[in-house]
Every structure is written in C-alpha cells, then in structure tokens.
Amino acid sequence: MNEKLKVIDAIQAKQARVSSLRERVEQIQGERLTAERSLGEEIQLRDSLMRLSDTEVEILVMETEQLRDSLMQAFAEMQKIAESVGELEFETAEGTQIYYAGDLAGGKANGYGYGLFGTGGIYAGEWKNNKRHGKGKYTWPDGNVYVGEYRQGKREGTGTYYFTSGEKYVGEWKNNMRSGQGAMYDEDGELILSGIWKEDKVQEVVKKG
C-alpha cells in the first residue's frame, strides 16, 4: 500500500513538474512574442524615422536646388538686362550725330530708348536698327512737337504735329511730310480745314472751319 502511495505521489509530482514546465514554456513563449512585437514596433518606428529623415533631406535638397536654379536664373536675367540696356553713339544716313540710351539688341538701338540729336532735338520712343521705328515723340529745339508713328527713321503713318503757335495737324504722314487724310486745328482746338494732303500741301479741301 505504501508503495502505491509513493508511486502516486511520484506521478503527481511529475505531473506538477510538467505543468510547471508547461506554464514556464508558455510564459517564455509569451515573453518572446512580446519581445518580437516590441522589436517589430521598434523596427517600424526606426524605419518611419529613417523615412521621415530621408523625406526631410529630399525636401531640403529640392529646396536648395530650386534656390540655386532661381539664383542662376536671376543672375542670367541680370546679365541679359546689362547686355540689353546701354548707351550708343551713331550717325543717321544724313550725317546727324545721335547719342542714344535705351534698349539694345545686336549692338544697335532696338526697343525703347531716348535719342539726343546733334541738331538739338530729343526723341523718346521705339527704335529698330538705330532708326526711329514705331511710336514715339520728337521735340525740336524751337518747341514744335510730333507725337506719332515712325518708319525707318521718318515720320510715316499717323501722328499729330504741335506747332508753337498753338495750332496742330492731326492725320497721315509719309517721308516726314503731311500726306493723306489730315486736318488742321487752331490754338482753341477749332477746325481750320480738313482734306487730302500731299508733300505738306493741301490737295483737296474736304471741310473748312
């Protein structure tokens, strides 16, 4: 009887030991899973931080490159402006000396600029290849003023000529002379006459004031 009790006690002790070992194994497995989860979370966090750092670096690099490109573009534009604006001295086909300050292209007056003529006149307006070409204003030393179109250095197109007397001509021009439809007005703005002009002379009067 005593032997049976001893055997039973031994079996129960082994069972208890097995249960204890099983609990310990389960505990170790749980700790391992927890450690693996923690390690996984740490890896994810590290990767996230590394990705965030890479993103920040990429943004910084991109912003730096954009700033560099902007500075290079600004420098190129400054050089272009420096090369496209300047001063020149040249002569007209008639031999009149001109001092010019304004837009340049191809080493010539091209664009908008100011011309001081050797005769004392001043022109402000558009230029093409060292000639007044486009819209502009020319003032003579005696005070007469022309505001209108130029072509190849001459008054041609439409424009208004203001006389120092107060009168003015409004109309068409060709080869520096009144030619085409045009009208003369007195100092009060009242119509003197309108008609067809040719080489600065009225050819046909259409209406008188």
Automatic annotation (TrEMBL):
Keywords: Repeat. SUPFAM superfamilies: Histone H3 K4-specific methyltransferase SET7/9 N-terminal domain (SSF82185). InterPro entries: MORN (IPR003409). Gene3D superfamilies: Histone H3 K4-specific methyltransferase SET7/9 N-terminal domain (2.20.110.10). One of its GO terms (cellular component) is cytosol. PANTHER family: RADIAL SPOKE HEAD 1 HOMOLOG. This is Uncharacterized protein. It comes from Pontibacter diazotrophicus.
